[in-house]
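Dear support,

Our group has been running a series of protein-ligand predictions, and this particular one with magnesium ion is the one our PI (initials K.S.) wants archived with full inputs and outputs. We had some confusion internally about which version of the output was final, so please treat the block below as the authoritative record. The input we submitted was:
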Amino acid sequence: PSRPRPKVILVIGGPGSGKGTQSLKIAERYGFQYVSVGELLRKKMIHNATSNRKWSLIAKIITNGELAPQETTITEIKQKIMKIPEANGIVIDGFPRDVGQALSFEDQICTPDLVVFLACTNHHLKERLQKRAEQQGRPDDNPKAIDRRLTNFKQNTIPLVKYFQERGLIVTLDADRDEEEVFCDISMTLDNKLF
Ligand code: UP5
Ligand code: MG
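Confirmed final output from the archive:
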C-alpha cells in the first residue's frame, strides 16, 4: 500500500506573531519538515536579485514589505515541497497571506489538514519586531516596511481567517502570551485534531 500523504499544517499570523518560532517547535516535536515561505523568497531574492530582472523586482517588493507575486510564491513552495523526500508532516510558516493564495494553494498543491492562526495585538507585534530589528536586521525590519507589513496583514487577514473558518480548518490561538504557553496550546490542538 502507498504511504499516506503527509499532514500539512499552515501557520499564519501578523508580522512578529511568532510564526517562525512556533513552526520550528511544531517541526521539532512532531518530526515534521519545516518550510518558511518568507525565508524561501528572501534566499532566492538575495541569490538572484543582481542577475535576474524578475527577482530584482521581487527583492524591492519584499524589502518594502509588500507581497511577492502569487504564482511565483506558489511555484517556490511547490518546488520546495517536491524536494522533501518523505515526511509525516510539513509545517508551512507564513502562508497563505490572502484568500487568493489560499485558493491557489488548494488548487495546485493540497487542502491543508489544519491552519493555525496566531492572534496577536498590534502592540506586541510592533514591540517584538522592533526588538528583533535591533538584534538581527532583516532587510524588511525597517520602520516603513514594518508598517506596510502590518497594514497588509490587517487588510487581508479577516477574509482569510473567515474563509478557513467556514471550512472548519482553522484554530485561532492567543499569541500574546509567552512562547511556551502558546506552544502548549498548539500541541494540545494538534494532538486533538490530527492524531
Ligand atoms: N517572539 C516570538 N514569540 C514570542 C512570544 N510569545 N513572546 C515574546 N516574544 C516572542 O517572532 C518575532 C520575534 O518575536 C522574534 O524575535 C521572537 O523571538 C519573538 P517570529 O517567530 O520571528 O515571528 P514571525 O511571525 O515569524 O515574524 P516575521 O517577521 O517573520 O513575520 P512576517 O510575516 O513579517 O515575515 P515572513 O518571513 O513570513 O514574510 C516576510 C515577507 O515575505 C512578507 O512581508 C512578504 O513580502 C514576503 N512573503 C510573500 O510575499 N508571500 C508569502 O506567502 C510569504 C511571504
Ligand atoms: Mg518569520
